[in-house]
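ok here's the first one, seq then struct tokens
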Amino acid sequence: MRLVESRATLTITYVVLGIGLFTALFPIVLLVLNSLKSAQEIVQNPLALPQVIRFDNFARAWKDARFSTTFWNSAMLTALTIILVCSTGSAAAFVLARKKIKAWKVVTFYLLATTTAPIQLFLFPLYFGFAKLGLINNVFAVSLVYTAIYSPFAIMLLRTYFLAVPKEIEEAAIIDGASSWQVFTRVMLPIVSPGILTVALIIGLYSWNEFLIATTFLQRQDKLTAVVSFFLLSGQYSSDWGEIMAAALIIVLPIVVLFVFLQRRFIEGMAGGSVKG
């Protein structure tokens, strides 16, 4: 009886996993297929296989979206945001994890509020402030906005990693003569590196795909990000859907490749961050 139940449970598990896998992969497969078709074929039947493989879609998408420039802008913006969030977030998380703060509930409420608050509330004041300071079309300035938005999440996640590290390790380093800065940089950071990698991947994904702030503060043609330039490929009255699909695949591919290579560390990092809150 137990054997029958275990087999039934295993079958149901595989069915559910199969449905989940199909749901996750179907849009990607459809994107790849349509990126190799002409616009006419996509309109006629987006689910069919391409009659003639159109690799020229990728060449036209790269040229028309100016990906040689916009990819660099996105990469620089993403890298700056990751560096700023991971450096400031890890330092703040270490202090919050190791110091007894009486107003911790207030700090927690503040971090949760800033995480859930919509950016639209601050968009117009930020824009006018940036315009007054001459920071429009400044990639570093936009990375500061991203840092302010994503840091609360990073701090709350990294704090759980620092809490999971036994205090005896820190005390032993202090006894050996290490300063607080050395304890943080040489002892704690290597231990919580899986969490920092997890934060870097998540923040990198958010920054790479972000549209609203990028299109508001980066308006010059040579400062556009890849996502914004992709959006501009769509015309008002007509669109080359083959080219658009190819451009979408070009944008998605770096993130997918990066996640595939780092998925084990990412999963380990997410699991480790849920050990202690």
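and now the second one, same deal
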Amino acid sequence: MLKKILKSYDYSLIAVIAVLSIFGLVMVYSASMAFAVQRYGVAPDHFFQKQKLFLIGAAVIFSFFAFFPYKIMRSTRLLAPMVMMSLLGLGGILIFGKVAGNAQSWYQVGGVSIQPSEFAKLAVIIYLSAVYAKKQSYINEFNKGVVPPLLYLVFVCALIMIQPDYGTAGIIILIAMAIILSSGMNWKNIFKLIGIGALALIVFSLALHDKIFSEERLQRVTVLEDPFKDELDEGFHLSNSLLSIGSGGITGLGLGKGVQKLGYLPESHTDFIIAVVAEELGIVGVAFVLFCIGFIVLKGIYIGMKCKDPFGSLLALGISSMIGIQSAINLAGVSGMIPLTGVPLPFVSYGGSSIIQLAIASGILVNVSMFANYERKFKAKQAQNPPAPAMSEPIRARR
């Protein structure tokens, strides 16, 4: 049986995740060398060494969740503590959290920063997938099958918005929408949810008008028109990002030879790491990153469509949508298509919380794929060729 299970793993998916993560480690080293010395006065490989430790831990966590049967996670004994821990983590950060970048979104534990909203994304995926899979028989009963699971989503997003971190809250809402659209719910209820969501957004915007539409946030929108017009102030991040992207050409300036990361491009190893990739490795490097991320997302969608278990199917679709949505928002922000939101690029950007959360998510995705392949390859064959019935003792005696 173990041999059959090992044969059922999708090794192409595992390989792409591993290669992209190692590529990200190399780019973190290249992007953070000058930043580490100039900003913190530490060794040039400071962030590289920390990311390397994160990746080693992530590999162990990934292996555990790749072997851990995902179906156990829909148990109430696991779901209830997960829900409570995510809410307590998000609530506690408002009291004990560290403020950075005008947001109180991190716990500082020694030299490591932990961002609970990263893990809240995964908690929402697991919870909504488990509950909507369990409610399949009455998924179209609005008050009983549709609304109750969304109360948890509302609490999570409210706690994240209070920090304030509207970008992460928006990503979680988009992920939830992807799961809802995949749950089998009819369009009547989906349109009801869209209407209620739009009304809630209007009320929320009016109630917090001064915070949401503050001068600083509005400048993030207006700067998109011409970031070079105010390149030393509001357009500083975006204009230097565009210079990095534009100077790379087809093959780039060469690994480690980028100029913008030398004090011009802020957060070069986190939110803007794709700009460093474009400058040093050109279109070729960016295409490699897009191919790997696209492969993971499309493979996740394929797994979700092929999996016969509703819980596994929604899990795969939710995880792949999370990776795809977050990647799209990061790339669009760095290239000036949408306002900057401070969202890291999955598997590539520096960050312990992000890489550990992705290790859990991708491990679950690989596990769902394994079970789907196992049931399709081996259980189907077993059902087609059942073993011959054992001969009864009386017949044996007569013979």
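notes on #2: The radius of gyration is 24 Å. The chain has a mean pLDDT of 86.
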